Amino acid sequence: MQQRFSNPVLMKELKLRFRTLKSFSGLMFYLFLLFIFVGGFLSVFTQFTGTGFFRPNESFIMFAVISILQMALVMFITPGLTAGAISSEREKQTLNILLTTTQSSTQIIIGKLLSSIAFLILLLIAGLPLYSVVFLFGGVSPVQLTTIFLFYLLTIVAIGSIGIMFSTITKRTIVSMIATYGGMIFLGAVTAFLFFVGISFETFGGMPIPTSGGTPPSSPVTYFWAAINPGALMLTILYPESGTQLANMTGISFPVWITYLIFYFAITVVCLMIAIRKLRANMKHNR
Amino acid sequence: MIEIKGLTKKYGSFLALDHFELTVDEGVVCGFVGANGAGKSTIFSILATLLSPTAGDALINGQSVIRESAEVRKQIGYMPDFFGVYDQLKADEYLDFYGASYGIPAEKRKVLIPELLELVNLTDKRYEYVDLLSRGMKQRLCLARSLIHDPKVLILDEPASGLDPRARIEMRDILRHLKSMGKTILISSHILPELAEMCDEIVVIDSGKLIAHGHVESIQAQLQGDKRIKVKVLNRLADARAFFEEDPFISGLEILENKQEVAFTYKGTDEDQVELLRKALLSNIPIYSLTVEEKDLEDVFMAITKGVDY
Ligand SMILES: Nc1ncnc2c1ncn2[C@@H]1O[C@H](COP(=O)(O)OP(=O)(O)O)[C@@H](O)[C@H]1O
Ligand SMILES: [Mg+2]
Hints:
The complex is a heterodimer of chains A (287) and B (310).
Chain A: H1 2-5, H2 8-17, H3 21-49, H4 56-82, H5 87-91, H6 95-100, H7 105-137, H8 142-169, H9 173-204, H10 220-227, H11 230-238, H12 240-250, H13 256-279
Helix pairs in contact in A: 2-7, 3-4, 3-7, 4-7, 4-8, 4-9, 4-11, 7-8, 7-13, 8-9, 8-11, 8-13, 9-10, 10-12, 11-12
Chain B: E1 2-11, E2 14-24, E3 29-33, H1 40-47, E4 55-60, E5 63-64, H2 69-75, E6 76-79, H3 91-101, H4 106-119, H5 135-146, E7 153-157, H6 165-180, E8 184-189, H7 192-198, E9 201-206, E10 209-215, H8 216-224, E11 227-233, H9 237-245, E12 250-256, E13 261-266, H10 270-282, E14 287-293, H11 297-304
Parallel strand pairs in B: 3-8, 3-9, 6-7, 7-8
Antiparallel strand pairs in B: 1-2, 1-4, 4-5, 9-10, 11-13, 11-14, 12-13
Helix pairs in contact in B: 3-4
Magnesium ion is lined by residues 40-41, 81, 157-158 of chain B.
């Protein structure tokens, strides 16, 4: 029964991932970027205040910026780690052999996903000590930090699943990379753009003008673009008032994090299901 | 053990396999011979559950490669014609990964891996990185990998291709050993004498069609169709000619005066041939030597595949 839970692909990929110098230098580079940033932030702020002191609300700003920066970094790295998962095996001609083993398609896909995510989790954990600086100065609750980490995880899993899906349905890694980065940029940037377009349409455009004091116009699409944007999500977690503001603007007061959770969970499920079905695409019957 | 029933595969409109029918019994080593593009890899991929046929089915140990592919995978060891290895992985880790992929428990894998490496003469390469091994070693390692779950059936697509003669002989000896272990083996090659040496049966395939199937010797006979017989006579060459000309199975008769020889193409069975000789002796034709020119398998192969470059 232990068999059922062991995942050979995961174990092998982890072994390989942590054996290569590339992973190590990748980790170092990631930490280097974060350190540069935090160091820069600290020096700029202490200069501004001129006192050499660091007040809790400034420490919170740093926390917010680190959190959003980490989200951006991790979103940027995830496609690179997952978009080659299956297609590179196809290119290296190892996929056929893997597919003749008794592992199910589900097992292979999940193994690939988890091994990439494991590395990203390592990055996030390695970045944790930076937060200790923030905690030292106070202003941030551990609950906030935990929430943020859970949403990192959800975002990584969803974008990772997009990468695995493209890697399975395209023949070439390069095509899969482009498609996955496209998906990531859509979620991270295009949604923000669409949100601002929507907002400006409502403010200046032909939308029915809200009579002051009445209920604001309901624009679910605009709300939706904001709700699935990772940056917007971070803001609503860090500054709950921004959530209220969004509700005022779009007339939808449904919590952003719930919409985000549902949407990213749905992306994950759909992408993984497609990947599992298409892994043995040349066979009609498979699981 | 293996039943291929009306197997047909189309790539778009291109017919790569055309109603292929074949039964191979348990413990038989069956060689697939055909030029490049004949459809060997296509059949093997279907049997290995990697490709769905357009029509037809194949049963391995009674289980359908289409409907019961998960079960079939337990029964077969497959070696593709082209394959890669993971870099950064050592030979024993390579086998360990595939062992785990077949659900073999870790303790059992520990025992199994040295045995398999021993079988394919790679014991001393156990801790080497697989991508640094020579081509012949990789082929042997891949063969060891295909054996890890002790499958009853081995499907080996050109296991000796691209190997130097020495590596080839090594591969052949390992295959002989596997045969003695009672495995049912399907093996493809375009190097015919090699296959003839180690196979019980030969399947000749061309343009996706089964051309011939049978024991190595009978295939030879079947494919030859007509054999060339040369009869040397002491004298009375003209009488000999007159005698042989009358036989209905004989055609293409020629007289080689300087060699005192009559040569002809003979289409009769072996029994007919015995009768022919008995009559010849009764007619006092002074035959002192008779040779049957057997075309070798390579010629036959070239003939049936119409000299396709292979
Ligand atoms: N994926 C494919 N798409 C289109 N044609 C293919 C594909 N795979 C094989 N073929 C064609 O099918 C024929 C049989 O190929 P194959 O089974 O590989 O032959 P063999 O292994 O005997 O050399 C060839 O003509 C080949 O070009
Ligand atoms: Mg081939």
